[in-house]
Structure formats: C-alpha cells, structure tokens
Amino acid sequence: TVIVFSFTPLASEPRVLRQSKSFLRSNWNVVLVGYGNLGYPPPEYSFINLPLGCSESRLLRYRLGAQMLIGRKLAQVFGSYALGRFGARLNYRSIPQWRSNWINAKQTLEQHKIIADLVMAHDYFTCPLAFSIAKRHSAPVIIDVHEYAVGQYANDPTWIKKELPLVRALQ
C-alpha cells in the first residue's frame, strides 16, 4: 500500500492523480489523503478526506499562536541549526489546519488499519506527517515538490523574511 499525502484539493492536483494511477498500474493499493472528494471517486483508490477548518478552543488557539511565534523566531534566528529546525517543527505543528490534518490522518489510518509499504509526500509541508507515518510502518518515503521550495517565492521580500527561514529549517 502506498499512502499519498497532499494538503490540497485532490481534484485539482493532476500530478498527484497521475502518480497515483502509475502506482495502480504497478499493482499498488493507493490511499490518497487530502481535501475534497475527487468528484468521480474511482473505486480503485481509497480516499481519506481531510476536513477543511478546525474546531480548536480559544485557549488552544492562543497557545498554538504563541508556539507559532516562538517557533518562527527560533527558525529565523538559528536557521538550519538544531534549534532552528526545532523551531520550524514547532511552528509547523502549531498551524491549526495542519495540526488538524496530522491528527485526522493518523487517526483514520489507524482506524482502518492501513499499513504503509511506501509513503509519498506531495510538497514539502506534508513531509513531517509523511515521515512520521513512514517511521511507524518502517516504510520508505518519496517526496515530490513542485519546485525548489527555498526559491519558490524568491521575488517576495515578505516571504523571504518570514517564511524562508522556516522552509530552510524544514528541509
């Protein structure tokens, strides 16, 4: 079984669907994890629909917001050193939607007793979840990113200042 993670609407991700069809042609069972239904749910795919939005309490949102700020600052100051990478992971796990994705995906995979032989991360921001699932199942990971992530928005000074340190630390 190959599990494919994409934190995007899967119906508008033709590359994910092409790759999944390639796995199917090679006799893999494919589990897609992402947003929205495919519009034409092919019976050969298993699909885990991640809910958009999350229902965190006000106190938890406040705590997550504080963690995000601390994590972001650590990543900006310490970059790709251990403390910077820790900050990037702290920031990542504090984003309410991604935290919700993490919890929902893990619970659903466990509930349905899905065991991964291979895990695929579509874009760098699905990597922490993909590596966590792969480690649990002793499975290899494939990472597919659209482009070189640290240069993705190199023309945007705000992105360079705020996001680039996080992307570098996550990579």
How do the helices and strands follow one another from N- to C-terminus? EHEEHHHEHEHH
Report the count of strand segments.
Answer: 5
- Uncertain segments of ≥5 residues (pLDDT<50)? none
Counted by DSSP, the helix tally is 7
Biggest beta sheet summary? 5 strands, parallel
Helix-strand makeup class? alpha/beta
Q: What is the averaged pLDDT score?
A: 82
Q: What is the distance, rounded to the nearest whole angstrom, between the alpha carbons of the first and last residues?
A: 26 Å
Beta fraction? 15-25%
State the shape: globular
Strand order of the largest sheet: 3-2-1-4-5
- Classify the helix fraction into a percent range: 40-55%
- Rg estimate, integer Å: 17 Å
Task: Report what the structure shows.
This protein is α/β, with parallel strands linked by helices and 171 residues long. Helix content is 50%, strand content 16%. It has 7 helices and 5 strands. The chain has helices at 14-25, 58-78, 82-94, 96-111, 127-137, 157-162, 164-170; strands at 2-9, 30-35, 45-49, 118-122, 141-144. A 5-stranded parallel β-sheet has the order 3-2-1-4-5, with helices on both faces. The chain is globular, with a radius of gyration of 17 Å. The protein starts with a strand and ends with a helix.
